[in-house]
Amino acid sequence: MIRPGIPVWPGDTHYSEERTWALDESCPVNVSRFAMSTHTGAHTDAPLHYDAAGVPIADVPLSHYLGPCQVMDVRGCGPAVRPSDFADRLQPGIRRVLFRTYDQAPQDQWDDGFTAVDATSIRLLAEAGVILVGLDTPSLDPQTSKTMDAHHAVRDAGMMILEGVVLDNVAEGVYELIALPLKLANMDAAPVRAILRDLETIND
Ligand SMILES: Nc1ccccc1C(=O)C[C@H](N)C(=O)O
Ligand SMILES: [Zn+2]
Ligand SMILES: [Zn+2]
């Protein structure tokens, strides 16, 4: 949940909120404003985040964020998800993949040692036809990365990214993903409300 105290990248803007108008005898409404980093909680990076010539989030295709999605449990995989951690389980034809790396994704403190995704894994996914890759940590690349290899592999393949998606109670399997970014002009990323629907209950 996005709330004061949600962890953010070291040095980045913490979430804050403020009431602009408050309900009382003379005011019929509550209205608020908030400030936060574009990379707070569950979010998606625009190519502009890591490429000066990349498109902003308002211009990314939405089809990537909607449709069948395989959740893979790779807990215990080490510092980065490698092909050997998941390749034999990848469902043929699947176009969206989310990796679960945490028992419980930290919601109160920043974790310097979060799990990243190796660029070789991104290339394997791209070759398999995957157009969206996501995970429950703050970044595809390690916190100390200066080269952003996984991000650039994503861009080279025309894929999209989800980061900070909480998967604590999600079992492995294929679901329908719905995780659309807000259409924010000029922005390098945007929050998403990420949900996974059980395929059997999709017509409810
Ligand atoms: N918020 C930041 C502030 C400064 C530097 C990086 C970030 C990031 O979030 C980068 C991260 N690698 C990301 O994939 O979104
Ligand atoms: Zn990000
Ligand atoms: Zn990122």
Automatic annotation (TrEMBL):
Quote the pathway field: Amino-acid degradation; L-tryptophan degradation via kynurenine pathway; L-kynurenine from L-tryptophan: step 2/2
What GO MF terms are annotated? arylformamidase activity; formamidase activity; zinc ion binding
Gene3D superfamilies in alphabetical order: Putative cyclase
Q: Could you name the domain of life of the organism this protein comes from? A: Bacteria
Residues reported to bind Zn(2+) 1: 39, 43, 45, 163
For substrate, which residues are the binding ones? Answer: 9
Any one of the GO BP annotations: L-tryptophan catabolic process to kynurenine
Pfam families xref list: Cyclase
Q: Which reaction does it catalyse?
A: N-formyl-L-kynurenine + H2O = L-kynurenine + formate + H(+)
Which keywords fit this entry according to its UniProt record?
Hydrolase, Metal-binding, Tryptophan catabolism, Zinc
- Spell out the InterPro entries in the cross-references: KFase/CYL (IPR007325), KFase_sf (IPR037175), Kynurenine_formamidase_bac (IPR017484)
The cofactor remark states: Binds 2 zinc ions per subunit.
Q: Which cofactor does it need?
A: Zn(2+)
What positions does the entry give for Zn(2+) 2 binding? 45, 151, 163
The active site annotation covers 49 (proton donor/acceptor)
Might you give the EC number(s) for this enzyme? 3.5.1.9
Family of the protein in this entry: Belongs to the Cyclase 1 superfamily. KynB family.
Q: What does this protein do?
A: Catalyzes the hydrolysis of N-formyl-L-kynurenine to L-kynurenine, the second step in the kynurenine pathway of tryptophan degradation.
> Subunit comment for this entry?
Homodimer.
Protein's recorded name: Kynurenine formamidase
